[in-house]
Amino acid sequence: SYFELMPAGMVLLLLLFGARVLAVCPPMCSCFRGHREADCSGRGLAQLPDSLQHNIRTLNLSHNRLRDLDSRLSHFAHLRTLDVSHNQLVHLPTGLPRALWHIRASGNRLQYLEKNDTAYHWNLQTLDLSSNELERVVFINNTLPGLLALNLSHNKFWTVPTNMPSNLETVDLSHNFLVQVLPGSLDRLSRLTHFYLHSNRFLAVDGQVFSRLESLRLITLYDNPWACEDEENMSSLQAWMESSSAQVQGCPCSTRHVCGEAHRSGTGGWHFALYTEPPLGADARHASRPPMQAVTSVQLSKSVPLDSALNRSDEGAMGHTSPAGYEPASSLGPLTSTPHSVSPQTSTTVRIRSAKKAKPGAARSTCQRLGSLAPQTLAANLILAATVLRNV
To answer: Where is the LRRNT domain (predicted)?
Structure first.
């Protein structure tokens, strides 16, 4: 045979080389796309698996027991996506490849982020450090030029970090202990479009700190203990909200859930709006937390007949009509957002301006039609019918 004519040393070399080629994927991992994508998640690993191919592009090490990966990943020079979320890391691994585009490290025990941890990651686009124990992060000016999305939610920040990379488009600082935004700390973020500050401890914020956010389209401020009685400190924020072109979810000291120029309707009549909380990056550790339910706002014009209004309310709930100018939070890279949809549990608010003009016959006709309407509008129609009967 062919191998019989070859020297014994060459045969042995070929066998060894062939074994190395076949062993590019460790037995505890699953590999795809020519072994360039390795999934080693949920295997109870305490150390990095051996025999991973050096030119892998995606490596998933999430949901393991990893404590230390310092300098263990530096030789993966082609690595683009690294997921080390839900392990036992106390700091971001040193020596990470500089070719990385996406780093996910949520659900660990990170307590700080030093300037050298990210200083040389020129290609990084998304950084997810949510659900850790971070109290401070240090960024060097003019580093991370490609970073578009930064997730620092569910940590222990007391103030908004300064020197955040200037090209950021999405920043999630929700579910922290934030009480202040230092003046000038947001001035460099001229490209920021989505800013999540809900579920913190703000009492008041000077609206001027947001004035340099020229590209802002959405900001969330709900679930904060705003000091509404302190009119002097709250007036600046309220003035900014009224003049801003951004959509504000959770207007402080207001009965409206959504305000800002993007929510205003200049046409009058009917106006539908669907809103859901768009967390930046799903987190399994907080999966039990229900998302903010959709809120449908229905305004009834005086010129709309009562029976016609019921039909249009039903159509609006079933058709999931979105308001003009509304744009849901974008998803950058691997980060996801909650779909904008209406569930049967949708919280519905109905404002009626023409109820006093309704006749008894219209009221009876209205009540007879409630059984045939869609479940999504049951709450709205019950409120509508009760209001009509009370005014008959």
So the answer is: 24-58
